[in-house]
Design a protein that fits this description.
Blueprint lengths: L6 E7 L6 H7 L6 E6 L6 H11 L6 E5 L6 H14 L4 E4 L11 H9 L5 E5 L6 H4 L2 H18 L12 E4 H4 L13 H11 L4 E5 L14 H5 L2 H22 L1
Length: 251
């Protein structure tokens, strides 16, 4: 528990057998529940996650939910969010299974929620001084372009680093959106931001450390940059504008 908040960490994982155990083991003690969502991995991600849980002093806080078929990172996160709500968590944090999120940054993500200054807090690696040396140049360019576009499509002009998946969301924000309607694959965070904007959710950025290991890889390449992410951005922009128009007419 962090201050008065019950915390669940959602770990979406797909073929992360090499890193999932270290990720699970690194989750701080202030977290009440660790929910690993194995998105139909072809390796032993589930086994490694459970092995890591067994080695911890409090293995009962760790559980693995396995998808029968691959649903995408957004689909895995949505599954984790639903389970966090079932467990009575006040806040659900997303920490990827590949070890790219520093557990030491977790209190900074939780602080605005505990102070009731935000409903959704997202990491911004560009606020951290190491970003220019740690993040590959190709990722810097891609993230800057997508973040600029997402500022427009989401309506949150003050946020940046839209692709950073290190986030914390309050249960009241989760209750304000339809998780089934959010885009399930690459482009998920961009679509989610637009839906949060329609719901009037308060969003803030906090600095988080960029981590790129020796064997870093990304699922985003030229193909996903050309499709479906631009389509997702246009879709979420249109959805947001249409919803805001409907709300204006009701008012």
């Amino acid at each position: 528990m962090y201050r008065h908040l019950r915390i669940a960490v959602v770990v979406p994982a797909f073929n992360e057998s090499r890193k999932i155990a270290a990720t699970v083991a690194s989750v701080p003690g202030i977290v009440d529940h660790v929910i690993v969502v194995d998105d139909a991995s072809g390796d032993d991600t589930q086994v490694q996650a459970l092995a890591a849980a067994a080695r911890r002093a409090a293995p009962e806080r760790v559980e693995v939910v396995r998808h029968g078929e691959n649903r995408g990172v957004g689909g895995a996160i949505a599954t984790g969010y639903r389970r966090a709500l079932e467990l009575g968590a006040d806040v659900a944090v997303v920490m990827a299974g590949d070890g790219q999120m520093d557990p030491r940054d977790l209190p900074a993500l939780l602080a605005p929620l505990a102070a009731d200054e935000a409903d959704y807090v997202k990491g911004n690696r560009f606020l951290h001084p190491e970003v220019w040396t740690a993040m590959p140049a190709s990722r810097i360019v891609g993230n800057v372009l997508l973040s600029a576009a997402t500022r427009v499509t989401s309506g949150y002009g003050h946020i940046f680093d839209s692709q950073c998946g290190y986030t914390a969301i309050h249960r009241r924000a989760l209750a304000s959106i339809d998780l089934d309607a959010v885009w399930a694959r690459y482009g998920y965070p961009n679509d989610l931001l637009s839906r949060l904007r329609v719901a009037g959710v308060r969003v803030v950025d906090v600095p988080v450390r960029p981590i790129y290991g020796e064997h870093w890889r990304s699922g985003i390449n030229l193909g996903t940059a050309l499709h479906p992410i631009p389509w997702v951005l246009l879709r979420s922009w249109g959805t947001r504008l249409a919803a805001q128009l409907r709300n204006a007419r009701r008012d």
